């Protein structure tokens, strides 16, 4: 296993559409997943997409720890509850509620910054899983935000490109101090995205 270098905003690998993974059960895919998992654990983020480690394939890893879940008391199968470590290969998203909500996100590929990003509240996702087989889940709130953030990486989209108000993009410490202090921004106290 190895800790991989993270691509930063501006690198072409983050701007292109990633290619489908031809064989989810291939040994090189298992190796990539192991390296990405080690990399994410080393940095302490929530999720990571393969293009962020310079591999232009449609694969993401993530988890939602109870401390970050919208409903930490919910069971692991609940849409807005904690989610165990998960690998999604060739994921597809179906939006179930086209209303969006704004929340604070950061990204390992955009270090030092955080921004308020509108995301759909509720969706269903389907993906292949390592070794074969399919996974299908519903996601809401924080879980849905993580899925949208990570899957955007597979289409060359970084969170600032989803922002509708760039005055709400700032340095992480300032955003945590000022945005989370506003009463109507209570949900923003939970920073999202793969930057953690
Ligand atoms: Ni990211």
State the separation between the terminal residues, measured CA to CA: 23 Å
Oligomer: single chain
Tell me the name of the CATH homologous superfamily.
Peptide deformylase
Proportion of residues in helical segments: 10-25%
Structure summary, number of beta strands: 6
Task: Please explain how this structure is put together.
With 196 residues, this protein is α+β, with helices and mostly antiparallel strands. 19% of the residues lie in helices and 30% in strands. The protein is built from three helices and six strands; from the N terminus they run H-E-E-E-E-E-H-E-H. Strands 1, 2, 3, 4, 5 and 6 form a six-stranded antiparallel sheet that branches. The relative contact order is 0.20. About 4% of the residues have low confidence. Nickel (II) ion binds next to helix 2.
Please outline what is shown here:
This protein has 196 residues and is an alpha+beta fold. The protein has 3 helices and 6 strands; from the N terminus they run αβββββαβα.
How do the helices and strands line up, and which of them pair or pack?
Blueprint (H helix, E strand, L loop, with lengths): L26 H17 L3 E3 L9 E6 L18 E23 L7 E16 L5 E7 H13 L15 E3 H7 L18
Antiparallel strand pairs: 1-2, 2-3, 3-4, 4-5, 4-6
The protein binds nickel (II) ion.
